[in-house]
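tokens incoming
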């Protein structure tokens, strides 16, 4: 009888020895400066605990214990930011890993060549059969008649607009995108159906002004399209120009320079009051204004783009199709100051700005160009921390994805570790040490080496 307690104690000890320690599977990131995506001030000497693809805890070093057995990663001298969200992309399969090496862990795909192909790629990313960012997609665009692109769904009636939304919901789309020839009379039925099915509507406008669309209930305005018409005394010429896509785009792009400061500020305030989000894609406007600059095809980061990627590299083809000459590009450049002013006024009015690139497009590079967008947002008047929030928390708000965009307990473990602090210089977001996607550490240089094989 006397030996039984000793035997029981031995069995207990052996059992405990076989149990995993509390730190098994935990990654402890220690000592970095943390910019958590909230828009608040950076936190020095941060501790971030990651387990099972999620952030378990966030604190200062020594404020909470690191679980015994955790994998500790010393990040003194580094900066952590949330995984970046590109809120306006056109995702191509070749670009999947390019997003990741640039710290873009989530993309909002707007306007795929087909709904089925977009859903298939999204599923490949989600299942891990293809390494790539988390992807939310609209599938093919919904346009008026005739559609600008043959892959878009053309709608003429309220019933057709509702059906187009229904088909995307059944296929598994995350949101809906309307395009430049979509008309105001079809907004209400489309928005009613999208609201019923809980699908946010993104709008690249042509024949509807931004205020009309925002007041009707679209979730986001892409490229700031429709703002010029909203700020103009007579929007009719802009609407009529959009009978033909390139003529409409050119007329609107040049039209920014004709606006005065007061009308821009008034329009920005009115739009902010509707709570619509703006995804300005300044980098797309900037690159279109500089298509005559051949050095942009060899700027740092272009080496990530395959020679076969005509969507990014074929500048000459775009110039042939559009017929744009130096005078047009100079006019585009004159408009850039007013576009920046609108962003600044919209921010001042409390509007939600999300960062998007419009990649892949001519000179607009998947991954890289989101960092260029951040620099342009800062040049337009955002602080570096606000610009980072535009590419993290604000992007998550546009996606209606509460688990993304912040480094906070309970959020998905999508992080970027930087070699410098972008709060001091936004260009530091490009100095990426490594990326964490769903709790998995990825090294950009290792991924890049596989592309040359």
């Amino acid at each position: 009888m006397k030996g039984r307690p000793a035997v029981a104690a031995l069995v207990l000890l052996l059992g405990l020895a076989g149990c995993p320690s509390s730190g098994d599977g935990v990654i402890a990131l220690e000592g970095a400066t943390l910019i958590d995506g909230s828009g608040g001030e950076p936190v020095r000497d941060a501790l971030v605990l990651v387990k099972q693809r999620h952030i378990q805890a966030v604190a200062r070093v020594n404020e909470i214990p690191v679980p015994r057995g955790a994998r500790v990663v010393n990040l003194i001298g580094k900066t952590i930011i949330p995984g970046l969200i590109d809120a306006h992309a056109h995702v191509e399969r070749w670009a999947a890993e390019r997003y990741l090496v640039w710290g873009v862990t989530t993309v909002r795909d707007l306007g795929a060549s087909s709904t089925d192909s977009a859903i298939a790629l999204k599923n490949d990313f989600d299942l891990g059969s293809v390494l790539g960012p988390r992807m939310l997609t609209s599938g093919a665009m919904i346009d008026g008649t005739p559609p600008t692109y043959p892959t878009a769904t053309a709608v003429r009636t309220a019933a057709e607009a509702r059906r187009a939304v229904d088909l995307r919901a059944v296929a598994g789309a995350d949101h809906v995108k309307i395009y430049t020839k979509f008309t105001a009379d079809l907004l209400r039925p489309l928005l009613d159906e999208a609201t019923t099915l809980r699908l946010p509507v993104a709008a690249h406008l042509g024949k509807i002004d931004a205020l009309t669309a925002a007041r009707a209930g679209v979730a986001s305005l892409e490229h700031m399209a429709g703002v010029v018409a909203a700020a103009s005394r007579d929007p009719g010429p802009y609407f009529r120009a959009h009978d033909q896509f390139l003529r409409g785009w050119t007329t609107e792009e040049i039209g920014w320079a004709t606006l005065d400061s007061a009308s821009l500020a008034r329009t920005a305030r009115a739009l902010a009051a509707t709570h619509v989000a703006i995804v300005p894609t300044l980098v797309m406007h900037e690159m279109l204004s500089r298509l005559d600059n051949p050095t942009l095809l060899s700027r740092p980061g272009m080496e990530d783009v395959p020679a076969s990627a005509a969507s990014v590299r074929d500048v000459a083809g775009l110039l042939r199709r559009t017929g744009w000459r130096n005078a047009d590009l100079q006019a585009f450049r004159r408009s850039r100051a007013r576009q920046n002013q609108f962003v600044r006024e919209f921010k001042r009015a409390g509007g939600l700005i999300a960062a998007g690139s419009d990649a892949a497009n001519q000179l607009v590079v998947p991954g890289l160009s989101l960092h260029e967008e951040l620099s342009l947002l800062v040049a337009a008047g955002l602080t570096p921390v606000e610009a980072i929030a535009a590419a993290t928390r604000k992007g998550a708000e546009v996606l209606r994805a509460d688990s993304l965009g912040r480094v906070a307990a309970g959020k998905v473990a999508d992080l970027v570790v930087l070699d410098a602090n972008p709060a001091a210089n936004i260009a530091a977001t490009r100095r990426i040490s490594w990326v964490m996607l769903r709790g998995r550490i990825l090294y950009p240089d290792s991924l890049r080496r596989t592309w040359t094989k």
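note: The first strand starts at residue 26 and ends at 34.
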